[in-house]
Amino acid sequence: MSVAFPEGMISVTTADGDIVILRICDLCGAAVVEGEGTDLGFHKRWHRLTGSGNWIDPATGRHHGPGNPAYPGGSPS
User: Would the N or C end of the chain have less CB density within 10 A of its end CB?
Assistant: First the structure.
């Protein structure tokens, strides 16, 4: 069994009617809230700093990170 992550951006409306923008990380599939003090760029910098942006999903065999042949120069920022 595998999980299919959406690509790009999605929005969610809260019970209070606020709209929250979520951007999907192409490295790990996390939904990252777009807001003041945090964004997808900050999340990807965290991947680079921790070395966690280069891994293989055991369920799908998909290579995430700089070694992915879909992004020869490295993953998109």
Answer: N
pLDDT category, 75, cuts 50, 70, 90?
very low
Residue type, 53: G
Number of domains in the chain: 1
Strand partners, 22: 10, 33
Over 70: is that where the pLDDT of 72 sits?
Answer: no
Instruction: Give the range of the structural domain holding residue 32, as residue numbers without chain letter.
Output: 9-64
The pTM of the full predicted model, rounded to 2 decimals, is: 0.55
Name the phi and psi angles at 38, rounded to 5. Answer: -150, 145
Give every strand in the sheet of 31-33, ordered side by side: 9-13, 19-24, 31-33
